[in-house]
């Protein structure tokens, strides 16, 4: 055995190489370590994103030459005033928030049972299959799915075909169709965080509840829902914000309706009025900030 | 003790995919008994408890609670409550709400609920903590909340799954005393799961020793300790010195397998001549100071390495060091014959 | 959890029903890919394999898929690096402004895409004066993908704690060696999960892309959007969608397997 | 790149005098289906020939509405744009496109005269591009539902209530002109002479008409597929359309028909234009010539579904009839899309016309 | 023992935001010593260990390892290694790679690394498990891997933070024996943190009892157990019967605070008359069967409720039941005077 010849001496620690000195320095100076970690991402997020966002908002106070479409740096509150006072913007904002809220509620109502089934009822195998089943539709393009719904919801589409024998009819194109389609599109984004949140609720808590006499519904209401609440809120951030800015789906299935996204899009893409578009964009920004401020303390942001 | 048992398990069996966790267990537990299930990890104790509580469905056999077959009854309709190993307190509710939960789901009014929960908290000396969240309590306090929560609904039996496992030693001893006291006060059946044999012996009226999903021996602590039915029980319940057939012949002069507890042995400078006593010579390998006692490890000349437990008091006649020659002495009646596994 | 029989059945039925609703439109898409109708009309008037043949010869479609994959890969890579750095900083240190930074990370996904889109469009073109290109798309996508990586990694870091890193330092490893040999391998599956989600987000993004893509940059969603207006192209798009859904099983399954095996290791 | 502060007044750029060497690539902004290189369908390709001939590689981007085209041209990323009349004047006014020396484009000679030197492709006699193809925004109806066969836009305006919820309209501010065309015939008191030159009162009348129509509109359409689907499924039964849509529908169902109503109709005549800051002007000129050449023009306009720009092109198409190509009479009933500007395009000087930005605002409000 | 201590802590202090976790600790630990730090939860034991390992920076005081001041040295440059309470094995590496890790970061070649790691694994009897992942090992096996990993780099001292805390009772006893054996073989300093007094007594050469960030008493197990310096130590190290000034006067007839260990007391039917012995009458409240012994709880007539520990052997003269009158007897020399906190 060769091992007999090996001298059993403690191997020296590789001292004083540059990397090691660096390590020692970093260990002793946590602030430097923090600085190095944060430098690149903060640079990116602040320089690319925040600056762009602030500049956009600044643009809201500029004006546009009505004929050439060039932006002029004339400071004015006109755009803001227009957006705040125009009946059009109020109506559309209400409609948009209404749609986003409806989509969010529907998605949460749909996501809860399926997420619960996945997390707490299904066996590990079925659970894996279900996760795949929920994730897979994400890969069929958003547009394709929206058009598919257009087909499903049309006057002689599948839905009409299914409902007609029951004496019911497809809602046709319009806000209802928009809500249905958006709910469909964002459902996986709502299911996933709720599923993850429910998985984190220990089984023993559910057992404790039923042990103490709580029936299924009571256990859901008193134990499952409160504990999954942050995850639910995280899911709503997705559905709410994605709905709030959407303009493509409403174009496809919304019939004659328009939402805030359409107004922004028309003004930037069509009317080439970036200042007004920026002013309109303020509406969803304010709404989302308000919502984030509201849900922040629930810990929802950690569950996205 | 009434004629009808609190709990009767008949041929209870639970198979998971590949393992048989519980294997044809028959058991009767009397009303008001403090009953422990003792066994090594994976022996099926928790599974039996979960079957009784209703969290698992048996693959075979029946469960009767107070004469009623509850094999198919869901947990919320069974008159038993559980104290979970990790306590399973609802983190989003205050201590009071946790305790009141069982009353709330039973539709007890707010005022009465509060009053009864406070009384239950007082019983575990936590009435000052009603408004805290579980996260703001220490381990021992949480354990007591779990107890209060399970007892406030006045179950006919309480199931406890290693409720003291997460506590540190000092606290654990203290909680053992409190648990026993609570059981006496309530007068209800406690079914207690543990893998700590000392705990089982200290607390229980009767103990079932589990091994591989079966009950290996069932009896009072004294029966188990003094008359272990098998090698496994002798070894698992307390420490012991085992003598296999060879050593039994050379040292004890008997045929079969035997066990002698360390505390039944004494060390002496010379062989004993007293009636019924026997001695064997050996060399001290180690002497460990335990505080309340001393553990001597002795290599017997013609036998195994054995352990001798002496009380740390004035009765000790020798104070041997490593390498000293000693005579280990025992009384014939303290030699316990083990039933071989096949028998 | 053991539920009452009725509850179990109800839940199972609801789940099945939701799945049916989830897959119903996809079935329509599948049917359309074999339909003789060019306008996705229902019910399909006839059966044809023409679109499947044409889809695989459509250089435009294949290019678009290639572009989308390229954009998604680079954006995901950037997001992985930035997301990991930021989660290490936020999880391992307590400092002033920590909450602000965690909000900052969430913002690009929480604000509607059209806002991010026009903000970046305005920023690149008007403020910086750089022409839009594939890189502007990558930058935009990476920005809103950071959060998915961030959330996955920080959750993992939280669970990991610092024990393993301390053990490594204790055994003589410096900061970098510890990251390479201990921290990174522990993060791998979280990175995979976050990366996969980031990839999916980028791959299917249309709104921000519309505003940040230069001329000639045709990602798949843009291709689809364009082709929805073209005669005879809609069924080809349906074919692409079907193929993507089927192909996506592989990465999702792998990710599941990896995180699954990780769970049993824990 | 073109900054916000950049951009000049209209018409200052001068046209090119002669052609130089090809730059090797050209970037084109066009309606979908205008620049096909076979990548979508190997059989639909008129770009490869161009690249072969000139060595100019083509990079193209398509846009969805005229307004989008105007925005995109502001990026300065494109050498050539195919713009409809509602975009051209804006592009010219913003200085985004340059005058085109038609002498450098041999194919220009064959183009229909009634398409040349129009207010949407020329300013003060200076040509800003080469016509591509044209078409009318026709009235389509479901023959099962709408009877008798309409001959007037009445069915989508004053008579729209009969088909409430199933009327469809084109989703663009320029659709206000359709209302103006209708008013021109039905409310002569308003004195509308050109639907793109509306003063305040005329404009208000048109907007009111559209607001009334709004309650009967099932959906606004701007993309091709949406319209086809809606008619096929019966979600829409009457509304504006393009000939090509009818052609596609005719292949699938047989219950739709189109008509050019008595009042006349709006329409488009697209123009190939060259960016004033084109990086590849020579390739750009070559493209304009190529796309106007009869065979290519025939291919491209046939694929999109519109009338070609020359008689010669009809030799390469067998469906010219359906599009009324070269039918000057028919063409005269079409009010081609023109950008409404303050300086009335009908020549009135006593009033100020409502400009396009107001049209845009009004359009949002009409939709509500 | 060499003149230079392995570890010297001088005025070591660590303050967290609001708590002083370690409060001016002075300590010298000799080379080759098995040294334990014992104390209740939160007393600062872990913090001292982390300061020595270098994971925390002290707010005051210095740390010397083998004569060199390492107060500012990063953990990876200190010649000590740690066995973590949860073992902190790298879950993505095989057992062999875990053990070889310290050699790898020191740049030892692959072949030598493997050989030395295998040797270290053999020393903990795990050479057959080299290719497993930590998750495939039992608790006790993981604990041994952690030991092998820490010892393979031949540290001058090993720091162990409750390494047996996560093991169940049987395994824990077995590992205690192995740990002690390993320390003897390696001959290096072990610094062992525990809150289990029995473990500390059994294993250690010397024990420091921590209380609120300070060392309350430092000594050999026997010194601590037989001569506790304070009320706190007497109570924390083993169980004891405390006599405050009043009861000391009535029962013991002495002035001051005293402690008598339960195993120093015997039960008898009559008062003892032997020299140096004293008795007190009382009533048995409870008798708990422990297996190796019996614990009797007795209410003394003029004194406190006390605990008497008897060995479960033939020497017992009475076998009292609840409510029986007994005489509790002790020897004057077994009464330990406690130094009052103020003194
Ligand atoms: N849900 C389950 N699925 C599969 N096997 C299980 C499940 N629950 C328990 N088992 C297996 O059943 C056997 C008995 O487990 P059980 O938890 O009852 O043991 P235990 O005696 O409580 O052990 P411990 O002392 O470790 O808690 C074990 O082999 C275990 O792996
Ligand atoms: N990182 C920290 N931040 C703030 N306080 C801390 C930190 N670590 C320890 N403490 C506090 O310092 C005190 C000593 O803690 P330490 O972990 O050293 O105790 P311990 O004796 O090891 O206890 P245990 O037996 O519970 O492990 C405690 O009050 C603890 O709350
Ligand atoms: Mg268990
Ligand atoms: Mg500790």
Automatic annotation (TrEMBL), chain A:
Top-rank taxon, per record: Bacteria
- Keyword Cell membrane in record: yes
Q: Which residues form the ABC transmembrane type-1 domain?
A: 93-295
Keyword terms of this UniProt record: Cell membrane, Membrane, Transmembrane, Transmembrane helix, Transport
Question: Which CDD domains does this UniProt record tie to the protein?
Answer: TM_PBP2
The UniProt entry, under InterPro entries, shows: MetI-like, MetI-like_sf
Ranges annotated as spanning the membrane? 36-62, 97-117, 129-150, 170-192, 223-244, 274-294
Q: Which PROSITE patterns match?
A: ABC_TM1
How this chain sits in the membrane, per its record, is: Multi-pass membrane protein
Which compartment or compartments is the protein found in? Answer: Cell membrane
Q: Which family does it belong to?
A: Belongs to the binding-protein-dependent transport system permease family. CysTW subfamily.
Protein name per its UniProtKB record = ABC transporter permease
* Transport among keywords: yes
User: One Pfam family, short name please?
Assistant: BPD_transp_1
Automatic annotation (TrEMBL), chains B, E:
- Organism the protein comes from: Protaetiibacter mangrovi
Keyword Transport tagged: yes
Q: What is this protein called?
A: ABC transporter ATP-binding protein
Task: State the UniProt keywords alphabetically.
Answer: ATP-binding, Nucleotide-binding, Transport
Tell me the Pfam families matching this sequence: ABC_tran (PF00005), TOBE_2 (PF08402)
Q: Which PANTHER family match?
A: SPERMIDINE/PUTRESCINE IMPORT ATP-BINDING PROTEIN POTA, SPERMIDINE_PUTRESCINE IMPORT ATP-BINDING PROTEIN POTA
Q: Which residues form the ABC transporter domain?
A: 7-237
The record's listing under InterPro entries reads: AAA+_ATPase, ABC_SmlMolc_Importer, ABC_transporter-like_ATP-bd, ABC_transporter-like_CS, Mo/tungstate-bd_C_term_dom, P-loop_NTPase, Transp-assoc_OB_typ2
Q: Which lineage do the record's taxonomy fields give for this organism? A: Bacteria, Bacillati, Actinomycetota, Actinomycetes, Micrococcales
Question: What SMART domains does the annotation carry?
Answer: AAA
Protein's UniProt keywords contain Repeat:
no
Q: Which GO terms describe its molecular function?
A: ATP binding
Automatic annotation (TrEMBL), chain C:
Q: Where are the transmembrane segments?
A: 12-34, 64-88, 100-120, 132-154, 190-214, 234-255
Q: Locate the ABC transmembrane type-1 domain: which residues?
A: 65-255
Q: Note the topology in the membrane.
A: Multi-pass membrane protein
Keywords, A to Z, come to: Cell membrane, Membrane, Transmembrane, Transmembrane helix, Transport
InterPro entries reported in the protein's UniProt record: Bact_Polyamine_Transport, MetI-like, MetI-like_sf
Task: Give the CDD domains listed for this entry.
Answer: TM_PBP2
| Main location as per UniProt | membrane
Report the subcellular localization: Cell membrane
- Look up the domain of life of the source: Bacteria
Q: Reply yes or no: does the keyword Ion transport apply.
A: no
Q: Which Pfam families match?
A: BPD_transp_1
Keyword Transmembrane set for record: yes
Q: Which family does it belong to?
A: Belongs to the binding-protein-dependent transport system permease family. CysTW subfamily.
Mind telling me what this protein is named? ABC transporter permease
Protein species of origin? Protaetiibacter mangrovi
């Amino acid at each position: 055995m060769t091992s007999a010849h090996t001298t059993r001496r403690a191997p020296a620690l590789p001292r004083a190489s540059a990397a090691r000195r660096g390590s020692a320095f970093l260990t002793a100076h946590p602030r430097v370590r923090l600085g190095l970690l944060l430098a690149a991402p903060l640079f990116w997020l602040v320089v690319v994103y925040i600056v762009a966002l602030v500049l956009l908002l600044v643009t809201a106070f500029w004006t546009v030459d009505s004929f050439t479409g060039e932006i002029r740096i004339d400071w004015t509150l006109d755009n803001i005033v227009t957006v705040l006072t125009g009946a059009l913007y109020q109506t559309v904002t209400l409609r948009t928030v209404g749609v986003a809220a409806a989509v969010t509620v529907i998605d949460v109502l749909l996501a809860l049972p399926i997420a619960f089934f996945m997390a707490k009822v299904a066996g590990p195998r079925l659970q894996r299959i279900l996760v795949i089943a929920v994730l897979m539709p994400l890969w069929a393009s958003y547009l394709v799915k929206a058009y598919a719904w257009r087909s499903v919801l049309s006057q002689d589409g599948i839905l009409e075909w299914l409902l007609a024998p029951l004496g019911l009819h497809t809602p046709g194109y319009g806000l209802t169709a928009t809500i249905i389609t958006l709910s469909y599109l964002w459902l996986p984004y709502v299911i996933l965080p709720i599923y993850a949140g429910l998985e984190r609720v220990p089984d023993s808590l559910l057992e404790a509840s039923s042990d103490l006499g709580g029936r299924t519904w009571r256990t859901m209401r008193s134990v499952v829902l409160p504990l999954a609440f942050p995850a639910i809120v995280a899911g709503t951030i997705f559905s709410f914000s994605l709905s709030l800015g959407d303009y493509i789906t409403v174009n496809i299935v919304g019939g004659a309706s328009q939402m805030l996204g359409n107004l922004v899009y028309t003004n930037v893409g069509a009317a080439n009025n970036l200042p007004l578009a920026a002013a309109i964009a303020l509406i969803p920004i304010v709404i989302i900030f308000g919502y984030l401020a509201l849900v922040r303390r629930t810990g929802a942001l950690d569950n996205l | 003790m009434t004629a009808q048992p609190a709990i009767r398990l008949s041929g209870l069996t639970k198979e998971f995919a590949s393992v048989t966790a519980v294997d044809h267990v028959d058991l009767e537990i009397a009303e008001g008994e403090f009953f422990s299930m003792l066994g090594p990890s994976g022996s099926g104790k928790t599974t039996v408890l979960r079957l009784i509580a209703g969290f698992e469905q048996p693959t075979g056999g029946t469960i009767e609670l107070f004469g009623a077959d509850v094999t198919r009854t869901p947990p919320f309709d069974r008159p038993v409550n559980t104290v979970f190993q990790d306590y399973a307190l609802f983190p989003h509710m205050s201590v009071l709400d946790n305790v009141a939960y069982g009353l709330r789901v039973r539709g007890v009014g707010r005022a009465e609920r509060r009053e009864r929960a406070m009384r239950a908290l007082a019983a575990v000396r936590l009435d000052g903590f009603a408004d805290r969240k579980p996260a703001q309590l220490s381990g021992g306090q949480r354990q007591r909340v779990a107890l209060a929560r399970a007892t406030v609904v006045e179950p006919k039996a309480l199931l406890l799954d290693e409720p003291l496992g997460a506590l540190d030693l000092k606290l654990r001893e203290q909680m053992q005393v409190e648990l026993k006291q609570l059981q006496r006060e309530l007068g209800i059946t406690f079914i207690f799961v543990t893998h700590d044999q000392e705990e089982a012996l200290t607390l229980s009226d009767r103990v079932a020793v589990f091994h591989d999903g079966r009950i290996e021996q069932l009896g009072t602590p004294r029966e188990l300790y003094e008359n272990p039915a098998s090698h496994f029980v002798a070894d698992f319940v307390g420490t012991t010195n085992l003598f296999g057939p060879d050593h039994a012949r050379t040292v004890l002069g008997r045929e079969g397998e035997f066990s002698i507890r360390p505390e039944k042995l004494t060390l002496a400078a010379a062989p004993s001549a007293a009636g019924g006593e026997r001695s064997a010579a050996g060399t001290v390998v180690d002497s460990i100071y335990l505080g309340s006692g001393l553990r001597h490890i002795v290599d017997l000349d013609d036998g195994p390495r054995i352990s001798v437990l002496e009380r740390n008091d004035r009765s000790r006649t020798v104070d041997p060091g490593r390498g000293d020659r000693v005579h280990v002495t025992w009384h014939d009646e303290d030699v316990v014959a083990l039933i071989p596994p096949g028998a | 959890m053991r539920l009452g029989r009725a509850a179990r059945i109800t839940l199972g039925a609801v789940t099945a029903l939701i799945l049916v609703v989830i897959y119903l439109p996809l079935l329509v898409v599948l049917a359309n890919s074999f339909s003789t109708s060019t306008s996705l009309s229902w019910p399909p008037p006839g059966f044809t394999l023409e679109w499947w043949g044409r889809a695989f010869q459509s250089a435009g479609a294949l290019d678009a898929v290639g572009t989308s994959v390229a954009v998604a890969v680079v954006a995901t890579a950037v997001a992985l690096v930035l997301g990991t750095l930021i989660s290490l900083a936020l999880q391992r240190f307590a400092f002033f402004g920590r909450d602000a930074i965690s909000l900052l990370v969430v913002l690009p996904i929480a604000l509607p895409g059209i806002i991010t889109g026009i903000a970046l469009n305005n920023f690149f073109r008007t403020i910086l004066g750089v022409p839009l290109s594939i890189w502007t798309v990558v930058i935009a996508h990476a920005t809103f993908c950071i959060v998915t990586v961030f959330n996955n990694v920080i959750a993992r870091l939280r669970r990991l704690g610092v024990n393993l890193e301390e053990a490594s330092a204790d055994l003589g490893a410096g900061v970098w060696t510890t990251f390479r040999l201990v921290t990174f391998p522990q993060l791998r599956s979280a990175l995979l999960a976050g990366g996969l989600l980031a990839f999916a987000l980028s791959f299917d993004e249309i709104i921000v892309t519309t505003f940040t893509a230069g001329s000639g940059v045709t990602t798949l969603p843009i291709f689809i959007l364009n082709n929805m207006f073209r005669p005879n192209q809609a069924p080809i798009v349906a074919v692409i969608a079907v193929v993507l859904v089927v192909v996506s099983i592989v990465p999702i399954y792998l990710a599941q397997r990896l995180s699954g095996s990780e769970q049993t290791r824990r | 790149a073109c900054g916000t502060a950049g951009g000049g007044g209209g018409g200052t750029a001068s046209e090119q005098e002669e052609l130089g060497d090809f730059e090797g690539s050209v970037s084109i902004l066009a309606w979908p289906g205008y620049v096909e290189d076979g990548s979508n369908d190997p059989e639909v390709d008129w770009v490869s020939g161009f690249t072969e001939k000139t060595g100019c590689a083509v990079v193209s981007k398509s846009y969805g509405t005229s307004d989008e085209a105007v925005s995109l041209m502001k990026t300065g990323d494109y050498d050539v744009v195919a713009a409809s009349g509602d975009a051209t004047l804006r592009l010219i006014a913003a200085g985004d496109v340059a005058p085109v020396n038609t002498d450098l484009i041999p194919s220009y000679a064959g183009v229909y005269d009634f398409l040349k030197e129009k207010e949407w492709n020329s300013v003060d006699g200076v040509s800003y591009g080469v016509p591509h193809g044209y078409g009318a925004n026709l009235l389509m109806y479901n023959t099962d539902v709408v009877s008798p066969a309409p001959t007037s836009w009445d069915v989508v305006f004053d008579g729209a209530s009969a088909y409430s919820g199933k009327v469809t309209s084109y989703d663009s501010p320029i659709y206000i002109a359709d209302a103006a065309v209708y008013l021109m015939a039905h409310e002569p008191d308003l004195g509308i002479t050109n639907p793109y030159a509306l003063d305040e009162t005329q404009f208000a009348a048109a907007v009111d008409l559209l607001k009334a129509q709004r309650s009967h509109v099932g959906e606004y359409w701007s993309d091709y597929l949406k319209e086809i689907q809606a008619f096929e499924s019966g979600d829409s039964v009457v509304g504006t359309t393009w000939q090509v849509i009818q052609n596609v529908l005719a292949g699938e169902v047989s219950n739709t028909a189109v008509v050019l109503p008595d009042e006349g109709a709006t329409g488009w005549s697209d123009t190939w234009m060259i960016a004033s800051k084109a990086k590849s002007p020579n390739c750009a000129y070559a493209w304009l010539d190529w796309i106007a050449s009869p065979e290519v023009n025939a291919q491209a306009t046939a694929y999109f579904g519109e009338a070609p720009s020359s008689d010669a092109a009809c030799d390469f198409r067998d469906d010219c009839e359906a599009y009324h190509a070269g039918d000057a009479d028919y063409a005269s009933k079409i009010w081609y899309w023109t950008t409404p500007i303050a300086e009335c395009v009908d020549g009135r000087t006593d009033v100020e016309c409502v400009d396009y930005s107001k049209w845009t605002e009004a359009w949002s409000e009409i939709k509500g």
